[in-house]
């Protein structure tokens, strides 16, 4: 639960910073909100997967130090793209 809280706080701080930066730069609040939400959810999911996958690997009797790195990286990349494109699809009608 502490890892989830850490991921949520880190994601929220990054999202607020990015939303402000994009809004100042492009003056598009919907795009800023889209990117900020994608970053928030991606960081949260990455934190959760980064803490649970090594535990799962250990339970499956696989060395977490060897197997977790590539698996977590690939999973986080794929999930982040899915989150961003899913949110963009949801907000597409609001974009100009």
Keywords:
mainly alpha; 96 residues; Tetracycline Repressor, domain 2; single chain; 88% helix; 3 helices
Could you explain how this protein is built, in words?
Helix 2 (29-59) packs antiparallel against helix 3. This protein is mostly helical. The protein has three helices and no strands. The mean pLDDT is 90.
In short:
This protein has 96 residues and is mainly α. It contains three helices and no strands. The chain is elongated, with a radius of gyration of 16 Å.
Secondary structure elements and pairings:
Layout: H1 2-26, H2 29-59, H3 64-91
Helix pairs in contact: 1-2, 2-3
Unreliable residue runs: none
In CATH, the topology is named: Tetracycline Repressor, domain 2
Indicate the CATH class: Mainly Alpha
Q: Architecture, according to CATH?
A: Orthogonal Bundle
**Class computed from helices, strands and strand pairing:** mainly alpha
Q: Note the main sheet.
A: none
Radius of gyration: 16 Å
Overall domain count: 1
Q: How big a fraction of the residues is strand? A: under 5%
Classified in CATH, the superfamily is SLC41 divalent cation transporters, integral membrane domain
Distance between the amino and carboxyl termini: 39 Å
* Total of DSSP H or I helical runs spanning 4+ residues: 3
Mean pLDDT: 90
Overall 3D shape: elongated
Q: H/E series, N to C?
A: HHH
Helix content percent band: over 70%
How many DSSP E strands?
0
Identify the quaternary structure here: single chain
């Amino acid at each position: 639960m502490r890892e989830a809280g850490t991921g949520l706080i880190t994601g929220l701080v990054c999202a607020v910073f990015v939303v402000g930066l994009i809004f100042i730069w492009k003056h598009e609040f919907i795009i800023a909100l889209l990117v900020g939400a994608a970053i928030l959810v991606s960081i949260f999911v990455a934190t959760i997967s980064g803490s649970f996958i090594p535990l799962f690997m250990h339970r499956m009797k696989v060395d977490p130090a060897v197997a977790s790195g590539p698996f977590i990286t690939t999973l986080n990349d794929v999930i982040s793209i899915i989150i961003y494109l899913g949110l963009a699809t949801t907000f597409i009608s609001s974009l100009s």
